[in-house]
Amino acid sequence: MEYKKIINDNYTIHFINTNRFKTVSIVIFLTKEFNKDDIPYGKLLIQNLLYTSKKYNTKDKMAGVVEDLYGTKVSIFYGMTGQCNSYAMSLDLLNPKYIDKKYLKKCIKYFEEVLFNPNIADNHFNDDYFEMLKEDAISSVKAVKDNPMTYGGIKYAKLMYKGTPGEYSLFPEVEDLENIDSYKLYEYYKTLFDGSYKVDIAILGDVDTSIIDELKPILKQIKGNNKKLRFTIEHKYSNKLIEKVDSLPFNQSRLYIGYRLLNMNFHELNHVLRVYNTILGTMNDSILFNIVREKNSLCYSIGSYYSRYNPSLTIYAGINKKNYEKTVELIKKCVESMSDKKAVERLFDSAKKTINTFINNYYDDLSAQIDTYYNREFETIEDIETLRENVNNVTIDEVINLNNKISLSTIYLLKGDN
Question: What is the pLDDT of residue 417?
Fold first, then answer.
């Protein structure tokens, strides 16, 4: 693999040459400081850009050009990472060396059409499609309450991360969507390439840097900035334990328990915590799975995950409402048991094998490789083999001492009343 970083006034190119894949991926990342007002626009904009364009002004025409280009795919994702909003606009195509040079030009032309020639007239998106897609977006937001896992996670985040971007989800309020019309969406669209965002462009595949010349029709339309941004949220949270119960007519209840991570150094946050979390709640034989589910039959599902950029550890479980108090107490004991050397020692080697297997998958994960170079623009990210070495050097004592740096913060139950 060969990596080159090319810095331009308007964008930074990350060129990743590898022959591991038969495809080429070009991703344009737009990143700026978090603004909650962007959230309702994100989903609407993506749908309006991908559904039709000025040239391909029906859904069938859009589908037809994809078929003609051997399944070439244009995708756009809107997301939030830590204290940043971002768009990822990607073009995935077969390596042109297997077809012809005209194919590459046609694919890039299609990408340009989607991004820079939307289906607009008189300073607004096509009203027929806009209204239809707006109704779809509103319906999907309303349907969130029908999914206890998604809805519970949203309600938990509002408590756990209150006062930070983490309290917001990608599902906007219905009222905010209703207040957007086709003119407002077009005005918002115009901010994408006007210098408001830091722009990073990743190119990955078995190609040389001459592909950058092929991208000039797109590059010349991009105006970005090189503002220094960080993902990590630094916020002074209250030390007071928050406990809340909400009710909805579900059959199953969703439980979330959040712990703050206190003053962890880089090694603890990136290596020790990875081993700790695997033992606690992600591997097949984890402590939470064994104790709460297998031995005590208190949940349907259980696991844990952690956030680096809003430092926290979350335990989640699908339970029956009658088991709420008992499950919470048992989960607390499971976390306490992470200070027990014998309990950790039993799963320590298996946890490292699990992590190493996950790391091995990196080499076949095109998106993970692109994300690594993109994320390095904002945070310290190790190369994959350095990460492996540092994880493998984690000791049992480091894992059990990590309990000194976590603090119970939030207990949230979305109670199923059926």
Answer: 87
Distance from C-alpha of 408 to C-alpha of 378, rounded to nearest angstrom: 28
Give the closest residue to 116 by CA, choosing from 29, 30, 192, 39.
192
Question: Is the pTM here over 0.90, yes or no?
Answer: yes
Express each pLDDT in 175-230 by its tens digit: 999 999 999 999 999 999 999 999 999 999 999 999 999 999 999 999 999 899 99
Cα–Cα distances (Å) from 125 to 43, 87, 188, 193, 222, in that order, read: 14, 19, 11, 17, 21
**Strands 406-416 and 253-261: what pairing?**
antiparallel
Helix 341-361 with 384-392: angle, nearest 10 deg: 160
Bridge partners (DSSP) listed for residue 205: 17
**Number of C-beta neighbours around residue 337 at 10 A:** 18
Are 375 and 387 contacting, i.e. CB atoms less than 8 angstroms apart? no
Domain 242-416 fold is: Cytochrome Bc1 Complex; Chain A, domain 1 (3.30.830)
DSSP code string of 13-57: EEEEE-SS-SEEEEEEEEEEE--GGGHHHHHHHHHHHHH-BSSS-
Q: How far is CA 148 from CA 110, 160, 254, 275, 403, in A?
A: 39, 17, 7, 29, 30
Residues 159-171 pLDDT 10s: 999 999 999 999 9
CATH H-level, domain 2-225: superfamily: Metalloenzyme, LuxS/M16 peptidase-like (3.30.830.10)
Give the confidence band of 100 by pLDDT, cuts at 50, 70, 90.
confident
Q: DSSP of 275-317, one letter per residue?
A: HHHIIIIISTT-HHIIIIIIIT--EEEEEEEEETTTTEEEEEE
Contacts with 134 (C-beta within 8 Å, 6 or more apart), sequence order? 44, 177, 180
Q: CB within 8 A of 247, min separation 6: which ones?
A: 414, 415, 416, 417
Name the phi and psi angles at 312, rounded to 5: -165, 160
